[in-house]
Design a protein that fits this description.
The structure holds two protein chains of two kinds. Chain A is α+β, with helices and mostly antiparallel strands. Chain A folds into two domains: 246 residues, 3-Layer(aba) Sandwich (Aminopeptidase); 87 residues, Peptidase M42, domain 2 (Elongation Factor Tu (Ef-tu), domain 3, Beta Barrel). Chain A has an eight-stranded mixed beta sheet with strand order 1-2-12-3-13-16-14-15, sandwiched between helices. A six-stranded antiparallel beta sheet of chain A has the order 5-4-9-6-7-8. In chain A, helix 1 crosses helix 5 and helix 5 crosses helix 9. The model of chain A has no long low-confidence stretch (mean pLDDT 94). By secondary structure, chain B is α+β, with helices and mostly antiparallel strands. Chain B has two domains: 236 residues, Aminopeptidase, CATH 3.40.630; 81 residues, Elongation Factor Tu (Ef-tu), domain 3. Chain B has eight helices and 17 strands. In chain B, a hairpin with a 5-residue loop joins strand 4 and strand 5. In chain B, helix 1 runs antiparallel to helix 4 and helix 4 crosses helix 8. Chain B is globular, with a radius of gyration of 21 Å. Chain B starts with 10 loop residues before the first helix and ends in a 12-residue tail after the last helix. Classes of the chains: A alpha+beta, B alpha+beta. Chains A and B meet through strand 1, strand 4, strand 5 and helix 6 of A and strand 15 of B. Bound molecules: zinc ion. The site of zinc ion has 6 residues of chain B, from helix 4 and strand 13. The site of zinc ion (ZN) has 6 residues of chain B, from helix 4 and strand 13.
Chain lengths: 356, 348
């Protein structure tokens, strides 16, 4: 895919809405792109989107590779309609109340309703309140309706998404937007699928846009169980460098995807990814992961009898805000490295994964 | 003379009373299981138990298969040490707040009863498990050891009280769910649109363990937890739009599950069609069996029906009789809906 196409793709995916548990419109957007390059596309019982591409396997027993990126995004959910019509809400996934005041939102009620997150004006705060970061209890959503009007439009449990169109920076190759965690990963799946469209590969490949990652790696749990891949690579995001943050906690934007190393990851997969990056001159970074259950790779590794897993992370600044920022170069490199990895696989390599 | 909140109890209330007063901390659900099996066996085609102690009660039928799960276990304590003077040291089983136990009576499976008190403390915030002990009235260690061993479990000792329209007891979480399922099973007609399995699960309070293995074994097409939920209608309660007496709650979300949108909508449609009052529940703490069921194998679209309950995990959990009756009715109607066969998952 050309850089301009990748830019359009990632911006479209960023703008799509798919809060954990209700990912349909985001999976539909991903599906429109993936289905051009694969044999078959379907959704499983939890809503995971699975795009399957058959491998060329002259006289060989088939094996399968799953490439998994989560499609869900963080958001909010209405918990109560107050007397004056203000909506109280809670987070779905790890949403940070500090970034919410002043945020334009959309309430997914009986119709789509524009709103803003309101909070007390700074003039009206007490000394103590001014020193403290905002908490959910202090915040509300204003949709400009009275309680009676609001009750006709909004129910408890309705979802709230951020109304935040993505931005391409004027200079350079950075894109900012909501939900790039992990629509960037989903975009990398599409780039990989496009690269493989005319290529030969022996592996059967499942491109999986997993649901409910942000609430506990739930979609990947059932997808891994259902698909039983022989090996898997999760694609997610990691923290990008920014003022006040220093390595090893953060990674350079433009420095390539971070390959995770640690107990959660099969050493042969990690080594193969590094080798391919070197041979193809893709820049990569190395991330030491001590075993925090942070990505889909965590649950895939222990599915059924165990599935060798690896993780590629795209550096991303300002995670879990509406201006998450990444470099297009990193995204393209990630998709190409995945394609090179898929092409490199053969039966002996897969069989060797169980021999330590 | 009859006091205003002492009311004679009917048949369903007798069932609730028997269930809540039974002994059954997580892992020790036998008495509850025997009671439920006795009450439900004539309403179903067969019953069986599994390796963990879950009780299954099946109404055979065509696909799809609906699984309803209410947990039998309750919170309690486990004896960790018996000191030289015969006082027992204890640790929690499930989510028990130490300050709610002070002065409470606890009972063991063998009927031994005692009370919890605390060592000298300077401030209430020091009240933690190491400061608590259980006194069973034993004159010394030898006397205590005659009846109690390390690892024995005790649960709250509190009678069922009908307050006149509201019920108060220990272990309402989740014996009220068990009672609702037993009653719903009793009311079902001879022929059903699909198969149903009522599961009375073990070890929910220690991590949804019974429901995990029960769902794996059953491979249901849809899962429903029936449990209690918190309310926001008491003085200065945390923000929550669920009240006692406004009907059973159809769950949207808790810490363990985001209920499947189509399952939730079909439940709402059913309630509205039959004019059964209901509330929508967003629970910011806690989980239910649906959390385990929906992640079983390749995934099971799941929802939950909750009975609003005040003072959950206290000695005096309180529910509303109307909410209980409407929960029975809602479940009965949900079972009579023809549920669609879910997507095969294979993509064919
Ligand atoms: Zn419960």
């Amino acid at each position: 895919m050309k850089e301009e196409e990748v830019k359009e793709l990632v911006m479209e995916l960023s703008f799509a809405v798919g809060i954990s548990g209700s990912e349909e419109s985001a999976t539909a957007a991903a599906s429109r792109h993936l289905e051009r390059y694969v044999t078959r596309v379907w959704r499983d019982r939890l809503g995971n989107l699975i795009a399957f591409k058959e491998g060329d396997k002259p006289g060989e027993e088939p094996f399968s590779l799953a490439l998994v990126a989560h499609i869900d995004e963080i958001g909010a959910m209405v918990t109560k309609i107050e007397e004056g019509g203000a909506l109280r809400f809670t987070g779905v996934g790890g949403i940070d109340p500090r970034i919410l005041p002043g945020q334009p939102v959309e309430v997914h009620g009986r119709t789509l309703l524009k709103g803003v997150v309101g909070a007390k004006a700074p003039h009206l705060l007490s000394e103590k309140e001014r020193r403290e970061a905002s908490k959910f209890e202090d915040l509300f959503i204003d949709i400009g309706l009275t309680k009676e009007q609001a009750e006709k439009q909004v129910r408890i449990g309705d979802l709230v998404s951020f109304d935040a169109p993505p931005l391409a920076m004027t200079a350079g190759k950075n894109i900012a937007g909501k939900s790039l965690d992990d629509r960037a990963g989903v975009a990398a799946l599409v780039i990989c699928a496009a690269e493989l469209a005319a290529a030969r590969h022996r592996a059967n490949i499942y491109f999986v846009a997993s649901v409910q990652e942000e609430v506990g790696l739930r979609g990947a749990t059932t997808a891994a169980y259902g698909l039983v891949p022989d090996l898997a690579v999760a694609i997610d995001v990691t923290h990008g460098e920014a003022p006040g943050l220093t390595p090893p906690d953060v990674f350079e934007l433009g420095g390539g995807p971070a390959i995770a190393v640690g107990p959660n990851f099969h050493p042969a997969l990690t080594a193969r990814l590094e080798e391919l990056a070197r041979d193809n001159r893709f820049s990569i970074q190395r991330e030491a992961d001590t075993g925090v259950p942070g990505t889909d790779a965590w649950v895939i590794q222990v599915s059924r009898e165990g599935i060798p897993a690896a993780l590629l992370s795209i550096p991303l600044r300002y995670m879990h805000t509406t201006v998450e920022m990444l470099s297009l170069d990193d995204l393209i490199n990630t998709g190409r490295l995945l394609a090179a990895f898929a092409r490199s696989l053969d039966r002996p390599f897969v069989e060797g994964l169980a021999c330590f | 003379m009859k006091k205003f909140n002492e009311v004679a109890i009917n048949k369903m209330e007798t069932l609730i009373k028997e269930l809540v007063e039974a002994y059954g901390p997580s892992g020790e659900e036998a008495a509850v299981r025997e009671l439920i099996e006795e009450k439900i066996k004539d309403s179903v085609d067969r019953t069986f138990t599994d390796n963990l102690g879950n009780l299954f009660a099946i109404r055979e039928g065509a696909a799809p298969l609906l699984m309803f799960s209410a947990h039998m276990d309750e919170i309690g304590v486990i004896v960790t040490h018996i000191d030289d003077n015969g006082f027992l040291r204890i640790a929690p089983i499930g989510g028990v707040a130490p300050h709610l136990l002070v002065g409470q009576r606890l009972s063991f499976k063998n009927g031994v009863t005692g009370t919890v008190y605390h060592e000298k403390i300077k401030a209430l915030k020091e009240l933690d498990w190491p400061k608590l002990y259980l006194d069973i009235g034993a004159a010394g260690a030898a006397a205590a050891r005659e009846h109690i061993r390390i690892g024995d479990m005790a649960c709250l000792h509190q009678p069922f009280v009908n307050l006149g329209g509201r019920y108060m007891a220990k272990a309402m979480d989740d014996r009220i769910g068990c009672a609702v399922l037993v009653e719903a099973a009793r009311r079902l007609p001879g022929s059903l649109p699909q198969g149903v399995c009522f599961v009375f699960s073990v070890q929910e309070e220690v991590g949804l363990r019974g429901a995990t293995t029960a769902a794996y074994r059953l491979e249901p097409d849809y899962g429903f937890a029936v449990d209690v939920t918190l309310v926001g209608d008491t003085p200065e309660a945390p923000l929550m739009a669920v009240s006692l007496g406004q009907g059973p709650a159809i769950k949207v979300k808790d810490r363990s599950v985001l209920c499947h949108p189509r399952v939730r909508e079909l439940m709402i449609e059913t309630a509205e069609k039959h004019k059964i009052p209901y509330q929508l529940e967003v629970l910011e703490r806690g989980g239910t069996d649906a959390g385990a069921i929906h992640l079983s194998r390749e995934g099971v679209p799941s929802g939950a029906i909750s009975i609003p309950c005040r003072y959950v995990h206290s000695p005096s959990e309180m529910v509303d009789a109307g909410d209980v009756a409407h929960a029975v009715e809602l479940i009965e109607k949900i079972i009579m809906v023809s549920w669609p066969l879910p997507d095969s998952g294979s993509g064919a």
